[in-house]
Amino acid sequence: MIRSLLFVPGNRPGLFAKVARVRPDAVVADLEDAVAPAEKPAAREAALDALAAARPGAGLVLVRVNPPGTSWFAADLAAVAEACARGVADGVVLPKYESAAQLQTVRAALPAGATVVVGVESALGVADARSLLAAGPDAAYFGAEDYIADLGGRRTPAGTEALYARSAVGLAARLAGVPAIDEAVVDVRDEEAFRRNATDGRNIGYRGKICIHPSQVVLAHEVFTPTAAEVAEAEAVVEAEAQGVAVINGRMVDAAHVKMAREVLRRTGR
Amino acid sequence: MIRSLLFVPGNRPGLFAKVARVRPDAVVADLEDAVAPAEKPAAREAALDALAAARPGAGLVLVRVNPPGTSWFAADLAAVAEACARGVADGVVLPKYESAAQLQTVRAALPAGATVVVGVESALGVADARSLLAAGPDAAYFGAEDYIADLGGRRTPAGTEALYARSAVGLAARLAGVPAIDEAVVDVRDEEAFRRNATDGRNIGYRGKICIHPSQVVLAHEVFTPTAAEVAEAEAVVEAEAQGVAVINGRMVDAAHVKMAREVLRRTGR
Amino acid sequence: MIRSLLFVPGNRPGLFAKVARVRPDAVVADLEDAVAPAEKPAAREAALDALAAARPGAGLVLVRVNPPGTSWFAADLAAVAEACARGVADGVVLPKYESAAQLQTVRAALPAGATVVVGVESALGVADARSLLAAGPDAAYFGAEDYIADLGGRRTPAGTEALYARSAVGLAARLAGVPAIDEAVVDVRDEEAFRRNATDGRNIGYRGKICIHPSQVVLAHEVFTPTAAEVAEAEAVVEAEAQGVAVINGRMVDAAHVKMAREVLRRTGR
């Protein structure tokens, strides 16, 4: 269950220990967007050394490699595979995911059971999301910034320009049974914008959020964790169904409500 | 022409006669969401007995069966087929429509000429809507509540979370030449919300509305029946085209306007 | 680079010279929607005579033919082909584009190197946009009025009814590497509505705008030409990347930003 997928610049390994305090569900040491080309090899080594020295938190520890097709991809993947084998990382984040063969390459390189989170963040990735996600990654994030950049468009606060793609990726993820992680909110100081955007994402069916600053993790958990009232209602619905009660709180207990109630309880770990 | 598809709980057959007063284009005795599992067999019998005793109104009389894959489906379908053969029902509403084979099964069970309205209301139904509707149901509704529940999302008053799917189903219906019936409005007391939502649906190309309360029928007819002004303009456009007049009311008479004008007149039965 | 695709009624060739003053990137002599059926042959002749007499401006000169399947299509296409061969037109606008075979027919009729702009403006065109645009037109416009008319819907100022299709066509165009030209704004007096609508289009990735009045050309160029500030920022990003600088103006220089910066510079001709 990844409610928060927190990216930390791979070339600032000193941050790894600090971000553990906010208890993200997954920490990602980012070797891609956060690291300039000239620094890539040094950042890779420093990041993996830091992970070996201390695990950043109790959640998943992942490394975002550079995309397939770049000169860094093979060495990044080999380094992460070794880290997984040694137990210092749990898996990989594969950005710009555009063909099922890329996922096969990554799975083949990693130890069995390693986690693979893919990024759907290009025109081709969005257009082919259904077959790409059917190939079976463990989770997928929708990268709105990169997607809109790939279209030559521009991001806006309302985000209408990405609604089609965000909806399409959410649907494709559901069809494949893959948890979907929602787009980043770039302005890390605007908590209300994050809450609003995360709520929109949850309404579409997303299960968690990209976080690009530790302060966003608590907000993501707030939005993507069912509230006590939601849990209580879900329990009532499930119990009503089990006892054959047709109406609860003046509302028909139908299949859709039971399904949503079970989903709520599943997210609380019950 | 189904401007209103009014669902009535199958386990409350006393309502059937009452709803006839609002003259819905189609009445649906609902054996699915409206009926708790323990009550299914009794509700089926009571509903069909009531339909045999008195036809609820002058419009189509349909029965919503439980979905394919449930233990009630076969008996529901057999009962509706018999009711159609006896002339007490006109056809079936098939919920959670997800494969063309389901439609074939239903067509094969019913007398020739029976009406089949399908529900597109799941991730798979929306994703495959184009081929599913090309299989040729008589009409299709978009079930936003169930679709969003299937995604694990949540409904909002604005409905942005379902815009992608609602648009995709409307487009698929047009490609197949199947009339599309728009999502339900759950708050049955909010007339303005219904009008606004129905207007949005009509703007996307929907031809009618799911109604879950008799009071919504008059609102659906209000929105989905062309106004006198619309009819007058449509007549003017069609006449202008017939006489080779290029401009009407200061507006070019082009193919798109003629097409829309014909559609307006068709909806008034002309 | 077509920031403005200005349509001029083919039966009013006197306007051709006038519209040249606003310097549209492309002028289109429209033989389709602007001309009533009875006037089609005379308008064709008058339009092409006028183009032969004087080129309307320094940009592309195109002729919109009537759609494939109409009785005028063959003669329209032959006349445009001849005009292209004589150098008085640069190509054709093919409306209601719905099959790759239509594009092949047009390409085969025109001299090599002639420009073909297609219109995606029907249910089928939108649904098949990915394969239709992969067939390789030089540019494509999205016709929201005709698309919504084809669905039997209605246009609104907010345009939500066309967001799905507008997004799908923009994505399909990007996948095919075909510049996408955005929908028309019908109220030619409302400059703010045009700016807003064009900005939305640019945000989705569109490269230019249909113009149906000369006054809209300057607005289209305003929106679709990068500003001095955008150019300066783009230059800074590209230079930072070349020098291996990782952060510019407090923002990480990542692949998405470099890509957008290059796109901005490309639009200014650099």
Automatic annotation (TrEMBL), chains A, B, C:
Required cofactor(s): Mg(2+)
Domain annotation HpcH/HpaI aldolase/citrate lyase: ranges: 3-214
Keywords for this protein: Lyase, Magnesium, Metal-binding
A GO biological-process term: oxaloacetate metabolic process
Example of a GO MF term: lyase activity
Keyword Metal-binding: yes
Pfam families: HpcH_HpaI
Binding site for substrate: R64, E121
Gene3D superfamilies: Phosphoenolpyruvate-binding domains
InterPro entries given in the database record: Aldolase/citrate-lyase_domain, Citrate_lyase_beta/mcl1/mcl2, Pyrv/PenolPyrv_kinase-like_dom, Pyrv_kinase-like_dom_sf
Chain residues that bind Mg(2+): E121, D146
Designated name of the protein: Citrate lyase subunit beta/citryl-CoA lyase
